[in-house]
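Morning!

This is the sequence you dropped in the shared folder:
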Amino acid sequence: MNTALASVSIKSLEQSETILHQGKVVCMIVRAELTPSETTFYTPDHFNIQVGKIVYPAGSEIPRHVHRPVIRHVTGTAEVLIVQKGRMIVELYGDGHELLCSRHVGAGDVVILLGVGHGFRLLEDTVLVEVKQGPYFGPQEKEQF
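The structure's back. C-alpha cells below.
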C-alpha cells in the first residue's frame, strides 16, 4: 500500500468531505447536492479563507452594506474552485510530491484547496470559477513537479 495514501484520512458529513494529511486539513469538497436548511460554513474560523452556504427565506432581504477595512495577515494561498460545467479528477499531493488521493468532481461541486499540491485531469470540457487571495503575481508563485 502506498504510504502516502495510508496517511490520508477522510471525514464525510452528509455530502461534504474533509481530507486530512498528517493531521492537517488539505482539501474540502462540498457536493452540489448538499442544500443545507440553515446557513452552514464548511471552513473553521482559523482558516485563511471562509467558505459556506448562506440560506435566506423567500421575501427576506440582505440590508445594504459595505465592509470596513480590516487588516488580515495571510500566509500561503488557499483556492476555491466551483465547477460550473464539466467533470474532472482532482489529484492531491503531499510535501514530497507524492499522490495522496484523487476525487471525481462535477458541475456544482466546490473544491477548497488549503495549501496542498494539486493537479486536475479534465474528463469533459470544463469551466471553473476560481476564488483565491490576490493579486496573482504570475508563474513564479507556482512550483511545478
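Headline: Confidence is low (pLDDT under 50) at residues 1-6.

More detail when I'm at my desk.
O.
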